[in-house]
Design goal:
2 copies of one chain form a homodimer. By secondary structure, the first copy, chain A, is mainly α. In chain A, 66% of the residues lie in helices and 0% in strands. Chain A contains 10 helices and no strands. At the A-B interface, helix 6, helix 7, helix 9 and helix 10 of A face helix 6, helix 7, helix 9 and helix 10 of B. The first copy, chain A, binds a DNA duplex (19 and 19 nucleotides) through helix 2, helix 3 and helix 4.
Chain lengths: 221, 221
DNA sequence: ACCTGAACACCGTTCAAGT
DNA sequence: ACCTGAACACCGTTCAAGT
């Protein structure tokens, strides 16, 4: 199938269970067995994504969770639904970190630190998180989860604060910056020296933010 | 299947045929019918990738080319082999452009122009070219084609020249820069306003290059 | 040396029957 | 309301037979 991952990322925390308490379809509480199945599916998906990558066979996941394939499909109509559930806990942590950093003294350092944390998040599961972040950032996307919305809010606030402090020049679009972070994660996902390369690339991005904004975007020719 | 593309990119030029003259396996000239099949497969793959994206069914491609599935498999053992053949002509053009720009007066503008051309290339076929560029950039990759090797050579030369001219500060790794270009293409591949966003992001990258190099890559915490 | 095309394996999706 | 699991559809890969 695919190369295996070295380390298994930490499991999603209580946030996942908070999601499972209410059915994503009805809004009403889930039946106890349905909720158990939901949680088993998310847990086994997390393990399978770690082992096989994004393309882990769905029936393998349902088999490990001890449910039929139709049950997986009922809870998660698309693969992306399942993926988002797996990532939910990690994103919540990122949001919390960002909120804490909003009161840090050095606004520029706070931004830098949060972007590095976001990059670390984006790198999980072979750049899978990066792909989800990226698709959630597209405007016409009605799939952008609540978690992602919060994440972008925090990112924008940190960027605005850094700009007000004078450390970041001119008008960088927060969505652009976050897209770049996801893009870096994607770019290094299979590189042998991935994390050091990602570090250098993020430094390049931070330099671009610090620089006085010069628009040299003349058209192609 | 998938959303359709607006425009069909220009066909690969003579370079593709140059490849087809010798079998990729033996090194000796291909039999006339084999070569015809090779070319028909590349042409139909180009069209199918445009219509369906990267995941165009292989048997659809072989069906349109009028050959059996085994023939496609003989010429192109993996999907990536087929993709590389489709992109070959475009990459050759990019290399030529870069070589011409090596003697331009303004080294910084030359780099900027070539990076924008590289970005345009990376955007073809829904960011498919970006994925191929990116995987070719990984060091342990024995699949990096001759074309890509030339491309990275040209990019490195343009960057070095811009650095010597003083317009680009310090030591940016050419591979990092090209990875960023591919990453930008990937990030905007499905965005509604993709090309304008890509433009802004590339400007951010250029700003990062122009800035005096500051290394703020302190570890995570 | 190359091509054909049937056979196989794999995997996602649906749905009738059951609780 | 939810679950099961067989059935179906789709697609990549192999390989024996043919030229």
């Amino acid at each position: 199938m695919r190369k295996r991952y070295r380390t298994i990322p930490p499991a999603g925390n209580g946030e996942v269970i908070a999601l499972a308490e209410h059915g994503p379809r009805t809004g009403r509480p889930m039946r106890a067995d349905a909720r158990r199945n939901y949680e088993k599916l998310v847990e086994q998906a997390r393990i399978a994504f770690t082992e096989f990558g994004v393309d882990a066979p769905l029936d393998e996941i349902s088999r490990r969770a001890g449910v039929a394939s139709g049950t997986l499909y009922r809870h998660f109509p698309t693969r992306l639904d399942l993926i988002e559930a797996v990532l939910a806990g990690q994103i919540a942590e990122l949001v919390n970190l960002g909120r804490g950093l909003l009161t840090a003294e050095d606004a520029s350092a706070a931004l830098s630190r949060w972007l590095r944390a976001a990059l670390a998040h984006a790198l999980t599961y072979r750049g899978l998180a990066a792909a989800v972040m990226n698709s959630a950032l597209d405007q016409d996307n009605d799939r952008a989860s609540t978690w992602h919305a919060q994440m972008f809010e925090v990112g924008a606030a940190l960027l605005a604060r850094a700009r007000r402090s004078g450390a970041v020049g001119a008008d960088a679009d927060p969505a652009d910056v976050l897209k770049m972070v996801g893009a870096i994660a994607w770019a290094v996902q299979d590189a042998p020296d991935g994390s050091t390369q990602a570090d250098r690339m993020l430094t390049l991005l931070m330099n671009g933010l610090h620089a006085p904004h010069r628009s040299d975007s003349r058209p192609e020719e």
